[in-house]
Amino acid sequence: MSLIEELGLSANVRWGTPVNSVLWGGKYWRPYTIPGLLGFSPLPFVDRIRMGAVLAFLKAWPKVEYFERHTAADWLRRMMGTRAFGVLWEPLLRAKFGTRADEISLAWFWSRIYCRSFSLGFLEPGFQDLYDAMVREIRRLGGEVRLGTHVEGAQPIAGGRWSVALRDADGTRHTMVSDSVVSTLPVRVTARLIPDLPEAWRHRHDWGDAFGAHCLVLALDKPLLPENTYWLNVNDSGYPFLVVVEHTNYVPPSCYGGRHIVYLGNYHPMDHPLFSKSLEEVRADYVPAIKRIVPSFNEASIRDSWIFGAPYAQPIVTREFPSHIPPLKGPLPGLWIGSMFQVYPQDRGQNYSVALANRLVLEMVRERRGAD
Questions:
Q1: Beta partners for residue 219, in sequence order
Q2: Biggest CA pair distance of the chain
Q3: Is 369's pLDDT higher than 90?
Q4: Residues 306 and 220 in one domain
Q5: Mean pLDDT (whole number) for 290-308
Q6: Mean pLDDT value across residues 229-237
Q7: Is the distance from CB of 324 to CB of 204 less than 8 angstroms?
């Protein structure tokens, strides 16, 4: 919010409480609020009370250190009970992390309960306005924004400076010399692009795995999910996606030319076949599944569709993860590293990335002032 205010966009922020549901047994349930959990009849009442007590503890306990000693699956199963965990939380963990689900740290799960609220804000008409405002401000201050430019490598050179190899969108290669380099890439990509990184640093920080994110976006001529549902976790088995988000059940369709926008999301290892499928193939897989959730859905209501894939979108946050997080200051003079792998125990989000950027810049300023 501070960045939005700084860029003069705070008047366009809207707040609300969207409807979050889960698909279980072919029905929609809302167990993510106290009344919804108490009314969640697939679980015996004693299991609902037990789960509510565990979630209340997670919401109240402010320190992450206790949770770092446990895996989410083992601790939640013991505290909530096998039945309650198996209905609400285990399907989500397994859908998101696949065969790695049993390794995920309880600290990761705790951060989702402790740090989040039922209130959700959005920037009208969309966050593209924020990015455009950032570009304008960067250019006003004398900076450059080069879209479509690939970084092929970076290395320190004489005089404490850096040489960065670039390739423009038209294939032209050239070199830029700078005083410092800030890498916001995943740590493993940074390690590949900077060959001079010390072996000791690589051994500790060039570590771990991450899944890619995949999303099919549909633009429909009518609403899809009933009861104004914004977020639907798909806990029933046999679906090719783990979540259905009807964005325009929260943000007005008028922001999107009257169209109703639906996201169908997944996380998978980056060599998963889904990432190599065409839009037509993905739609062919997903449309029958959508009809199982919403029997009245007609494919003719799709006005447009897109697929997006992003590598390194979901770090595999194990109990070992915190010991491998790199410091913001890199091991070479003038090198700084700020990526989503460093927002632990969270793992992504615009708020966390802005907060990380603020910390990084403050450290850079302190070092520069100390040198002067």
A1: 261, 304
A2: 69
A3: no
A4: yes
A5: 97
A6: 97
A7: yes
The pLDDT of residue 358: 96
Q: Is 209 helix (H, G, I), strand (E, B) or coil?
A: coil
- Within this chain, do residues 161 and 198 fall inside the same structural domain, yes or no? yes
- For residues 100 and 192, membership in a common domain is answered with no
What are 288's two structure tokens?
A: 């029958």
- The per-residue pLDDT of the chain, averaged, comes to 96
If asked whether residues 94 and 169 sit together in one domain, one would say no
Q: Contact, 106 vs 75, CB < 8 A?
A: yes
- Encode pLDDT of 116-148 as tens digits: 888 899 999 889 999 999 999 999 999 999 999
Q: Cα(181)–Cα(129) distance, rounded to whole angstroms?
A: 27
Residue labelled with tokens 């570009």:
135
Question: What is the span of the domain harbouring residue 333?
Answer: 146-208+329-371
Model confidence pTM above 0.85: yes
- The answer to whether the beta carbons of residues 124 and 12 sit under 8 Å apart is yes
Q: Is 336 helix (H, G, I), strand (E, B) or coil?
A: strand
Query: Do both 250 and 102 map to the same domain?
Result: no
Pair (252, 275) in one structural domain? yes
Q: Which whole-number Å values give the CA distances from 93 to 82, 88, 99, 267, in the listed order?
A: 14, 10, 10, 11
Q: Which residue has the tokens 């798909």?
A: 234
3-state secondary structure of 324: helix
Domain-located, residue 283:
yes
